[in-house]
Amino acid sequence: MMTKSFSPSGCGFKLPTELTYEILLRLPIKSLGVSLCVCKEWQHLISSQKFITEHSSRSKPLLISSFMEAELKDNDMDCYLSLIDMESGSILINAIKYVKDIHVRCSCSNLVCVSGYGTGVQVINIVTRETIVDLTSDDIYDQILPDGSLLVDAQVTDPFMPRHFGFGRRENTNPVWRKKGCPSLHICSCASCMAYIDGVLYFLPNHKTSNAVASDTVLPFDLEDEEWKNVIRGPLSMYRQLDGTSSISLATLNGSLSLVDLVTHGDDQRPAADPHADIWVLADVDSGIWVKGYTIRLASLLCNMQVVNILIDGRIAFVNGERSILWLYDPKTGACKEVLDLTNYYAGGISIYTGSLLSSANYRSQLD
Amino acid sequence: MAAPESGDGNNGAARMVTLISSDNTRFEVEAAAASLSQTLQLTILDGGGGGGDGIPLPNVDSATLSKVLEYCIKHAPAAANGGAPNATAVDRAELERFDNEFVNIDQSVLYSLIMAAHNLEIEGLQSLVAKKVADMIKGKSPMEIRRTLGFPDPTPEEQAEMNAHMLEYGWAYE
C-alpha cells in the first residue's frame, strides 16, 4: 500500500531521487539557488555536473551585460553590471554598481572584463563580486583565455593602431603582466582576429594599417617563449586579390587553427544572394598547408548581426545592433528567433555567461 | 483520417483492456488509452489484458488508477496522432485547460499520482505532475519549501548549514 502523504520524516520527499531530479529540473535558476539550501540531498542533486548541464540545455542562457535602469536613464549615469535571466527577462544579479557607464568586453566562466572612461579596466567575478584586476589605465583587455590568462592591448593611444600587446597570466593571486612589442606588422587584436591554440596566439594583421601584407596573413606568437614566430601565408591570397573589405576571422576548430572567410557581398563565383562562409583549416603548421574544410550557407538575415557567443548546444547568439534584440539561431534546424529585447537594459557590451551559477565549486575556490 | 500503423489496437472497433488496481477493482479502458503507459504498452502489444484476464497493478490503488485513467483517456486521441502536430489550437487549449484543472488537487492525491505516473511510465503525466510540484516550490524560501513538502523542521545543525548556504547563494534571495 502506498503512503498517501509527502514524506513525514527525513529529507527527500519520500520520492525516488529521479523524481526529485525531474521536479528540480523544471525550476528556474533563481528557485534552484533557493532550493540548494533546502537540504543536503537537494544540494547534491542540484550542484552535480549532470544536473547543471541538463538544466542549462533546457533553459535559455544567462546573459552578462551592463545596463541602466529605465527610470534612471534620464537623470543619472548609474550603471550596473548584471546577470540577466532570459527565461524571465529579469535581472538575476546586480553584481556591481558604477557611477559611470561601463562596457562589458568579454567573459569567461565567472570572470567578466569591463571597461569605461574614468573606470579603467576591471575583471570581476560576477558571482562572488570579487574584483580580480583593477587597472585605472587605458589598457583594454580583449580576451580571457580558457586557462584564465588575460590578454591586453597595451599603450593604445590610437585604438586603430595597437603598437604593443600584452598578456597576463593569473598564477595564484599575482597576475604576471608582460608587454611585448609587435613585429613590423601591426596586429589586429579584436576577438575575431585572434585565436588561441596550445600556448600559441594567432593574430591577423590590422586591416587599416597593414596594406603591405595580405589580410589573411597569420602572425603566431608563442606564449611560452614569448616570441613571434614566422608568419603563415593565408589560403586566400594565393588565388584571389584581397582588399580591405574582406571579412576574415580566425577561430579554433577541433583544436586546429581555422580561418573563416565570410562572403556576404558576393564575388565572381557566387551571387550576392548566396551569403556563405568558407572555413579553411591549417592542416600543418610547419609547412603552412591550408585545407578548405567547410562551406556554410548562411541565412541572409544573419549577415548584419553581431555574434555574441556560441552556446554549448551549438546555437548561436546574435545581437541585432540597431534594436538591441538578442536572437538565437540554431544551425541544425535553421530556426532563428528573438529571445530578449534588451532595449531597456542595454548600456554597452554583452556576453553569454558560461560559468555554472549552481556549482558549489564557484564559492569554495574563491575562499582559498 | 488514416489510423497510424502503430498496432496498438487503434483501428476499427476500439480494443478494450482490463486493469486491476491493488484493491482489486477492475477498470475497463481502451487499449489506446492504457498504452500511454510505457509499462503497459508492451503487455498490451503482446495481446495481454483482454477478456477475463486483466492486468494487475499491485502498486496503484483504485482512487489513483481512476485519476490516471481520466488523464489517459483525455490524452489518448492526441497521442495517437503522433503528438498531434495537426491538432487545432482549440484542441491544444482544451488539453491545457484540462491539465491545469487535473493537477489542481489535494497534496496526498498529487503524491500518489507522481508515484503512479512514475511506475506506469506515463511520460506526459510525469511531466505534468513534476511541473505542478515545481510550481509549488517556486518563489518560496527554503523553510517554506520544507513545510510545503512536509519535511520535518531542521535540526539546529541543519538550520546552521541552511543559513550558511543562504549566505553563499545570496544572489537567489535578492
From TrEMBL, chain A:
Protein name as it appears in the record: F-box domain-containing protein
Residue runs in coiled coils: none
SMART domains: FBOX
Domain F-box: start-end pairs: 15-55
Pfam family, one: F-box
Organism: Eleusine coracana subsp. coracana
SUPFAM superfamilies: F-box domain (SSF81383), YVTN repeat-like/Quinoprotein amine dehydrogenase (SSF50969)
PANTHER family, alphabetized: BNAA05G37150D PROTEIN-RELATED, F-BOX ASSOCIATED DOMAIN-CONTAINING PROTEIN
TrEMBL record, chain B:
All copies of domain SKP1 component POZ, residue ranges: 16-75
Pathway it works in: Protein modification; protein ubiquitination
Every SKP1 component dimerisation domain range: 124-163
Family matches, as SUPFAM superfamilies: POZ domain (SSF54695), Skp1 dimerisation domain-like (SSF81382)
GO biological process: jasmonic acid mediated signaling pathway; protein ubiquitination; ubiquitin-dependent protein catabolic process
Family matches, as Pfam families: Skp1, Skp1_POZ
UniProt cross-references to InterPro entries, sorted A to Z: SKP1 (IPR016897), SKP1-like (IPR001232), SKP1-like_dim_sf (IPR036296), SKP1/BTB/POZ_sf (IPR011333), Skp1_comp_dimer (IPR016072), Skp1_comp_POZ (IPR016073)
Record's keyword terms, sorted: Ubl conjugation pathway
Family listed: Belongs to the SKP1 family.
Function field: Involved in ubiquitination and subsequent proteasomal degradation of target proteins. Together with CUL1, RBX1 and a F-box protein, it forms a SCF E3 ubiquitin ligase complex. The functional specificity of this complex depends on the type of F-box protein. In the SCF complex, it serves as an adapter that links the F-box protein to CUL1.
Subunit structure and binding partners: Part of a SCF (SKP1-cullin-F-box) protein ligase complex.
Protein name: SKP1-like protein
Species the sequence originates in: Eleusine coracana subsp. coracana
Taxonomic lineage: Eukaryota, Viridiplantae, Streptophyta, Embryophyta, Tracheophyta
